[in-house]
Amino acid sequence: MKRRVFLFFSLAQAQTPSITLSLKEPFDRRLELARKKLERGQHLNQVILLLESCIKEKPDRYDLHLDLACACAGRAHVLAKAQIDTMVREKNIEKLTEDREDWKKAQTSPESILYKTPEILFPAVIHTIDDGLLFKLSLEETKNKIQIYSERALSEISIAEKLLPVDSEKDQVQFNYVSAWIQAILWRYPRSLAEKIFPKEIKVEEIIQIIEKLSNFESSMSKSKLIISDFICHINEYKDFQSLNRGLKNKLVYSSKTELSEKTIRLFREYMDSIKNSSPVSALRISILNQDNKRQKLFEKSAGKKDYSSPTLEETSLIFESDLSVYENIANDNQNNSVLWYCYATKLLWNNKMKEYWEAIIKGNAMQAGGFLEYSLSAPKQIAWAVPTQVLIPKDFEILMSSITSGSLEQDHVSEVIQFVSKVEEASNNKNHAFENKKKLKDAVFWAKTMLLSQIVLFSEKNPDKNLPEEVGDFLRKNPVLYNRAIKSVALFKKFNK
Asked: How far apart are CA 457 and CA 468, in angstroms?
């Protein structure tokens, strides 16, 4: 044990003058400073040192060990996220290298679409989000540090449990609540890089059982259903994602995910009934949870078969045809939010109401680029900063972006579609959206732009004498790199289909 503590101390050894000064402060001041930084997800190595100094003075306080577990899990999360972002950056650099070469050649060719356009730059280097320092670790170094931080977090949870006051319901509730979320954070990104964190025999359901104990305590009864529902919803999203990414064929994984999503819906409904809440946002949330559950059931039905195939378009359409009134109410309650009118359009499209569908798109185009409705999961304040805000984006919204940009030119709605893509792109920059949710939306916008530009290239080649609206020229000028890619992709497509 001593050796492990020594190794751990080496991770937090960079003591700035300010932290050295803080360690000399009285106990209460040190604890206040540590918890303030912890709740903001800032300077977690400093938080660890402060909490360890507090524990040295009062080793029998379970809450200090629980806070330390949060800080360690948080730092493991930060390093895992930085490593994943670094790997994504490296892949993006590979793609952009060719674009940069095209750009350099174009600067001597005035007829090129890339001529005198801004230089194509590589993505910014990655910094760790808690302290803003440049991330320089190798993959192996990151894995080792994640392993040490994670093991320390789990060790502190065990110590905290042994120190819990006997017969104190309040403390037991707090312990179960916080310790479950700590493990959820470790289960998410750190587990994907350091698989030894959780032995193979530990299942996600065992972590869920910890937080489900809250329903046994009277003091947490009123809100326990919401807390448990939120927790299951969050952890289910990342459950066995490595297995799912390997072909989407694991029937047991889908069966388990379906069971958990049904539990999420049931608990959330019971909570809303208990507080007599029937707001449009709650109705939308239940609608989207139901859609996700139905999709999982479709995949579960096909998974595990030798002749595995994804659900057909007809099967998928049945999922999205319901709850039209829910989306209509949301749009009408938020009259000046373009994105919510686009969400309503998704439902109209799946219900084959094409006239109303285009009316909703046009109405959304005339409004401000608002944001998606969002809510925070019921995570404890010590770790909530690491849990992304949930944005209510229907899964079929990305399908809408694909369908509207792949067939728009033939339907003579190109101006409306360009406005639609531009509005959604503006919404993806909404500063209130959590980074991870903005990334999802930006990815959807990227593919929508790519498809639309490919359609424009194909249309122009088929109809050289037909002039497209002025908005098309503006759209091309704003997206020269993607336009250049579209030209090359169309040429490559033709080459392979001769």
From this structure: 11
